[in-house]
Amino acid sequence: MPDAQPAPAKALSAPQKALHKLGLRRDIDLALHLPLRYEDETRVVRLSDARDGQTVQVEGTVTHQEITMRPRRQLLVTLDDGSDTCTLRFFSFYPSHQKALAVGARVRVRGEVRGGFMGRTMVHPAFHAAGGELPDALTPVYPTSAQLPQAYLRKVVASGLARADLSETLPPELLDGLKAVVHGTWTLRDALRYLHHPGPDVSLDALEDRSHPAWQRLKAEELLAQQLSQLTAKRERDALRAPALRTAPGGLHEQLLAVLPFALTGAQRRVGEEIARDLARSVPMHRLLQGDVGSGKTVVAALAAAIAIDSGWQCALMAPTEILAEQHFAKLIGWLEPLLAPLGKRVAWLTGGQKKKQRSEMLALIASGEAALVVGTHAVIQDQVVFQNLALAIIDEQHRFGVAQRLALRSKTTEGDDGQSREPHMLMMTATPIPRTLAMSYYADLDVSTIDELPPGRTPIVTKVVSDQRRHEVIERIRAQVAQGRQVYWVCPLIEESEALDLSNATATHAELSTSLQGVLVGLLHSRMPVAEKKAVMSLFTSGHMGVLVSTTVIEVGVDVPNASLMVIEHAERFGLSQLHQLRGRVGRGAAASACVLLYTPPEGGRLGETARERLKAMAETNDGFEIARRDLEIRGPGEFLGARQSGATMLRFADLATDGHLLDWARGAAAEMLAQHPAAAEKHIARWLGSKAEYLKA
Fold this sequence. Notes:
Elements: H1 14-21, H2 27-31, E1 37-39, E2 55-68, E3 74-80, E4 85-90, H3 95-100, E5 106-112, E6 121-123, E7 126-129, E8 139-141, H4 150-163, H5 172-182, H6 188-196, H7 204-208, H8 213-238, H9 252-259, H10 266-279, E9 286-291, H11 297-310, E10 314-318, H12 322-340, E11 346-350, H13 356-368, E12 371-376, E13 390-395, H14 403-410, E14 414-415, E15 421-422, E16 425-430, H15 436-441, E17 447-451, E18 461-467, H16 471-483, E19 487-491, H17 506-516, E20 522-525, H18 531-542, E21 548-551, E22 564-570, H19 577-584, E23 594-600, H20 610-621, H21 625-636, H22 639-642, H23 661-677, H24 679-690
Parallel strand pairs: 4-6, 9-16, 9-17, 10-12, 10-13, 11-12, 13-16, 18-23, 19-21, 19-22, 20-21, 22-23
Antiparallel strand pairs: 1-8, 2-3, 2-5, 3-4, 5-7, 14-15
Helix pairs in contact: 5-23, 6-8, 8-23, 8-24, 9-11, 9-12, 10-11, 11-12, 20-21, 23-24
């Protein structure tokens, strides 16, 4: 008799698929799916007492119904509650509406009352037959999709909330500390029940700004789960093995220091020592190197690479764009190749656009170990790239890479003499400084090194915010700069005309400047150009033959032309604060006085939006990348800094780093204590809040 086959998995219904799409798979997911807002259906208001613009629930009798065709097809219903009348107006309606709102029907209606020439109206109000008890709690309105009506979602959330295991995961000693932070004795169960069905006497402001103690309890639990998952990931990594890399007296590290054409700053020396201490341990380093634009992170990376190569291992450096990878390649070749040649070692170059013959040659050098240092784009992590013994992976502008890409680089392990695999050390670099609260939360599993000092000789950049109406003055300024032998960047946000956005594009601006600046070589650079053409343009600009470079944001990071002294950013109001700061950092790299012009175009007949004004104001007021990062966090939230770090995992849904620092401080201390004293409870807490998403934090 053949073995019985397992029963096929039951197909999901359309509502179940929609729930899964919203991430609602478990009872606890439903319990944690909190309302966007609330509707007050606990009381009926007399129409004569309702204020214009107020959303109220009224009860009355339908006295008239008609369908009119002017100015468009609509259903008009007159409701009389004995104190006044109101016209209910529906532009989208069905026969069921007409039946439920037939003349003589007694109904309860909820909507915004508007006054007008023709009397009071409600447009598309909610309604149902009158009668029955009024609810004793506010009615929740949940985030949903088109496939899930509120009535259905309310029902499944209520059943999920009833079934979910909401038993306490926090041990008594941590609960005592939490009570002082959230001002009350709310349990998780009480907080969730209250937030799903708050009483009518609650302060809606406290619910909406999430300052209510029930919200505070929830946010504290969420932050604790995040801190626990980060600490767990760090401990799991600490249990892995990595090659212990040490410098040899007179070795490559010392030789590189001796041939550098400049002295390291104190900050560069300090972070270099922090990295060297990590590399000497047999535990994988997982360090974030942050430093403002132009602070000299590349040379710190080169010194770390020298330590790995000195120890007989390979190093890989991965950058997000070919231009940035080439900048690194040129610098590292200049510094390291003369020192590697006597050792029979080379620097390899890997990008997606390479010809097959060159690529095959590079892959062979990497596999044999002759390539001690490999520089490139995401091509470095492809399956066909096999390292002989990779010990150090350096990722530049780490927020531009996804979780899967970083995990792929980490997975290129090497077997040690004892037969155990060795993980590579990881050094991630960013020129977007991370604000303190963000480092404490999303980067809690990383060690952070900060270069907080710029090399000497850098000139401060003067930043001016200028309306596009003064464009001709800016072009005259460019003419003067070029006449003095200086070079200029002009950055545009789009390559081609867009019907959706009224933006000048790089191509049109290039044509305009070429015409206006007769006798000046004006170049054009954007991401859709062939690689060879991009290289040719960059070569003309870096050599000083090209006076003006019109570009999209491909020059955001890594381009280093000390002679460039003016940066014009067109439609600056369309860029993020961090991106504006990165672009500004392309000038001020030499001794000449440098300036950045933020050219903005206000909407027709109006002012710039609040967010755009705040960004431009911040840029004009400070050159400090850490202050820029702090303001960016206030304006935009954490997304800009995280990039794809949390890809596939939820960002903080409830806690707000700008206002909940006191809860984050509690969560940090509580997580360490809970993992040490109550590991089973910690595991249950992580599973409740993050499920499988905790895996993503390991990248």
